[in-house]
């Protein structure tokens, strides 16, 4: 006899509801974009968002152009504050792969990690309510993001933009001692070409990268070189800013450096530092008249009277380099060059300044080189080299306070450029940089910096640039080239939008550069009702 079994019916009902809900979700998911959807972009980076400056700047720029912007990536470090409190930007953090995976060998852990990433990235892209109009993806890592983005774009009718920072397979090859014929590397290369070849648009960090990829893989779609540029908050530091950094923030860590005892000019923090003084402080400090920008007059609660902070004439020249202390930067070049500068300065009869070299960053080779330089500089009178760890917010302030940047980066692929030089230029800081294949795309020799081939050439350049410091015409000339375009008599960038190449002598901000090269790509395709 048939009886209604309520106990069994309830689970069935639940299953039915879940199935209905899933079906509805699936239908919504596959529904093509409608014409009235707001402009939107999903930006995918399989890395720490806070450590992916370029992807954060992309997100900012899309949001500035009224796009709803979903930024998908890992947490870890804090993203730039301007992204956090922006109404059109949503940040989606991916779940980290479990820690125990790291204990397994790469061959075993990699597939598990990739499977998890596929699930996580898919579900993030899946839960964005309206299908994004564009999906911008950073490459590398290529696996599995390129395939996921490719698939989702097909299902949801989005256009893919690939931002090529490098090639993933060459980075993988470095794990296998540079062997590009390793079976895994060949698979990775096949994958990257298959899913990376065709896209709505490709962005490249250098011309060299563009030429290489177009030739190697015959890329399909729009192709645009978008050089890295610093964000708008990077700029030269005012004398007051230099003072706050050295007389207050870094005062403790500087005075804790034994090698600086007796090297820096006498100072009385917080009233003066080795680099700055106020007109109310030590009367015998000579104030320099080469202050980079008009000095700011402030009312400071500490002194409760009007202060004028200025750079000291007897300050040492400040040189900076940031590094991750890896073998692709040859610090022996720096050591040899500093030794040579020491002997040149000793022979120069006070025409050359003392120099303080600050190396920022952490990494495996730091202790080795720092103890080497520590030994050397015991005999030096003119040169000191210290390493320092700075908070993220102090880093651009230090760059903006310095007189000369140093870059010893050599690129593994010779297709990408050092971000630290971009940051330095953003802070109005000229550089001396070790040459490599595509460096000329960034450093224009004799205009915004000098390029050297070896240590003795570098020492010679320091001498040329710093003679007569702080009144050294060559260095001031290089600095002038890096003034923001808005402060120079050139026409505003949107008037230049039609010219394919920026005029040689313009150093644009990220915004202007983005407006020139990326905005035309995304506006090309405006959908207008009834149009
Ligand atoms: C420092 O200079 C400012 C601006 O010239 C002036 O107003 C102020 O009185 C000076 N302070 C001292 C202590 O000389
Ligand atoms: C360093 O480079 C310069 C310029 O390329 C060259 O003239 C010089 O001979 C080089 N010096 C050494 C020691 O290699």
UniProtKB/TrEMBL annotation:
EC number: 2.4.1.142
Keywords: Endoplasmic reticulum, Glycosyltransferase, Membrane, Transferase, Transmembrane, Transmembrane helix
InterPro entries membership: ALG1-like
GO molecular function: chitobiosyldiphosphodolichol beta-mannosyltransferase activity
Pfam short name (any one): Glyco_trans_1_4
Bilayer topology annotation: Single-pass membrane protein
GO CC list: endoplasmic reticulum membrane
Region Disordered, annotated ranges: 485-504
Main location as per UniProt: endoplasmic reticulum
Coiled-coil annotated spans: none
Compartments (UniProt record): Endoplasmic reticulum membrane
Domain of life: Eukaryota
Keyword Transmembrane helix in annotation: yes
Role according to the record: Participates in the formation of the lipid-linked precursor oligosaccharide for N-glycosylation. Involved in assembling the dolichol-pyrophosphate-GlcNAc(2)-Man(5) intermediate on the cytoplasmic surface of the ER.
Protein name: Chitobiosyldiphosphodolichol beta-mannosyltransferase
The species this protein was found in: Mycena maculata
């Amino acid at each position: 006899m048939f009886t209604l079994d309520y106990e069994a019916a309830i689970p069935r009902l639940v299953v039915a509801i879940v199935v209905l809900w899933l079906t509805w979700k699936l239908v919504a998911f596959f529904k093509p974009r409608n014409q009235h959807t707001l402009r939107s972009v999903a930006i995918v980076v399989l890395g720490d968002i806070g450590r992916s400056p370029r992807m954060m700047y992309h997100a900012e720029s899309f949001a500035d152009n009224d796009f709803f912007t979903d930024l998908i990536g890992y947490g870890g470090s804090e993203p730039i504050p301007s992204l956090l409190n922006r109404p059109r930007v949503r940040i989606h953090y991916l779940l980290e792969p479990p820690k125990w995976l790291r204990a397994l060998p790469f061959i075993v852990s990699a597939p598990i990690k990739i499977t998890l990433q596929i699930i996580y990235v898919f579900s993030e892209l899946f839960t964005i309510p309206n299908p994004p109009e564009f999906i911008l993806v950073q490459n590398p890592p290529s696996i599995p993001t390129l395939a996921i983005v490719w698939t989702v774009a097909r299902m949801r009718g989005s256009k893919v933009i690939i931002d090529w920072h490098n090639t993933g397979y060459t980075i993988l090859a470095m794990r296998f001692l540079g062997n590009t014929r390793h079976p895994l590397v060949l698979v990775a290369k096949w994958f990257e070409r298959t899913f990376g070849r065709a896209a709505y648009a490709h962005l490249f960090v250098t011309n060299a990268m563009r030429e290489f990829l177009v030739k190697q893989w015959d890329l399909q779609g729009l192709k645009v070189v978008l050089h890295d540029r610093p964000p708008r908050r990077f700029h030269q530091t005012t004398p007051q800013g230099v003072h706050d950094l050295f007389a207050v923030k870094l005062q403790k860590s500087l005075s804790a450096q034994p090698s600086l005892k007796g090297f820096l000019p006498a100072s009385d923090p917080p009233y003066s530092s080795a680099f700055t003084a106020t007109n109310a402080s030590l009367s015998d400090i000579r104030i320099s008249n080469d202050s980079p920008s008009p000095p700011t007059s402030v009312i400071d609660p500490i002194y409760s009277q009007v202060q004028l902070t200025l750079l000291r004439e007897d300050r040492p020249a400040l040189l900076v380099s940031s590094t991750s202390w890896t073998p692709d930067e040859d610090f022996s070049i720096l050591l040899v060059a500093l030794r040579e500068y020491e002997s040149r300065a000793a022979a120069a009869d006070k025409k050359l300044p003392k120099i303080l070299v600050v190396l920022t960053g952490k990494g495996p080779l730091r202790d080795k080189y720092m103890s080497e330089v520590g030994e050397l500089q015991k005999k030096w009178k003119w040169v000191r080299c210290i390493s320092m760890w700075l908070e993220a917010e102090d880093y651009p302030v230090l760059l903006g306070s310095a007189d000369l940047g140093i870059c010893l980066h050599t690129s593994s692929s010779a297709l990408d450029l050092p971000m630290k030089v971009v940051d330095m230029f953003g802070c109005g800081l000229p550089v001396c940089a070790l040459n490599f294949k595509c460096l000329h795309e960034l450093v224009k020799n004799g205009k915004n910096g000098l390029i050297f081939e070896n240590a003795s050439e570098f020492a010679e350049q320091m001498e040329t640039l710093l003679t007569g410091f702080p009144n050294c015409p060559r260095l001031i000339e290089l600095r002038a080239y890096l003034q923001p375009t808005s402060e120079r008599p050139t026409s505003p960038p949107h008037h230049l939008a039609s010219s394919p190449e920026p005029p040689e002598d313009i150093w644009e901000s990220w915004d202007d550069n983005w407006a020139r090269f990326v905005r035309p790509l995304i506006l090309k395709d405006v959908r207008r009702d009834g149009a």
